[in-house]
């Protein structure tokens, strides 16, 4: 099956092969000319960072090789000396995937809030903030982190109404708010808000560039000019500055606007696919979480999920690992060139092969 015909049902991006990524990079680099940077310095990098800042509605953005470093640096800068505690969801990326990095590298203490599905309540955040202020030693909460959609909940969204209440409550307490927006364009499309509007309540925003642009690496951190002053020096001090960042910058300049703007189309395409599949009646779909997102449960009934996954790969459909007799399938920009009827036809052929 040719790579151009492969459609990923298992990722938030189209996950290009090394050959396809090299082709895209060569095309983007040709448009950028010979303006290679040295350790992230130069007009090319600055232009890409300004574009990201504008799209996220912030004064400044800084490129990073990894999202972990972008998140850690944001929290370090948001938390003043006597407020080094950070409130997080217990299943968030920052708490569950970075070990004790916040404590070891930044001297921060992560405190988990009681989970309310993929989110937490404004009341829980308020109680934690007020409780931290009651000790005899000053030990306040400096920042609250929101991640949405949440990977560990199969991309379920932090419920929007509660998120708005959390943002208002945290800001009223004078505590900073950070968005782990690895999948920010998905969150904005789910909320039917512009990316800038969704990011507006947050003091800092991390955006994954590899997830959204199909790159092998890359992240951006956006916020006020004051918050990010000298961030490029901290990036280098922490070992996070690559000798050249131009591959990331040229791909941002070539594809960021197209990719950010495509997510409402992806949601519409996904709706059409679900409608076609529901009429066909062979599979059962059920929502993940209370808000629309790019992920739904696909129940395959009596079919062997592992065998179906192998048969689907023969039809150019990449399914995720099964969870019982169902898959958490994800729509992405790689779906857009393929009609919903074509995707269903391939899934049907896979099911026929699986049933034999």
Q: Would you kindly provide a written description of the structure presented here, covering whatever features stand out?
A:
- This protein is an alpha/beta fold and about 350 residues long.
- The chain folds into two domains: about 5-15 and about 260-355, Alpha-Beta Complex (Aspartate Aminotransferase, domain 1); about 20-255, Type I PLP-dependent aspartate aminotransferase-like (Major domain) (Aspartate Aminotransferase, domain 2, 3-Layer(aba) Sandwich), CATH 3.40.640.
- The chain has 14 helices and twelve strands.
- The protein has helices at about 20-30, 45-55, 65-80, 95, 100-105, 120-130, 160-170, 185-190, 195-200, 210-215, 230-235, 245-280, 305-315, 340-355; strands at about 5-10, 60-65, 85-90, 110, 140-145, 175-180, 205-210, 220-225, 285, 295-300, 315-320, 325-330.
- Helix 2 runs parallel beside helix 12 and helix 6 (about 120-130) packs parallel to helix 7.
- The longest helix is centred in the last third of the chain and has 35 residues, at about 245-280.
- It is globular, with a radius of gyration of 21 Å.
- It starts with 6 loop residues before the first strand and ends with a helix.
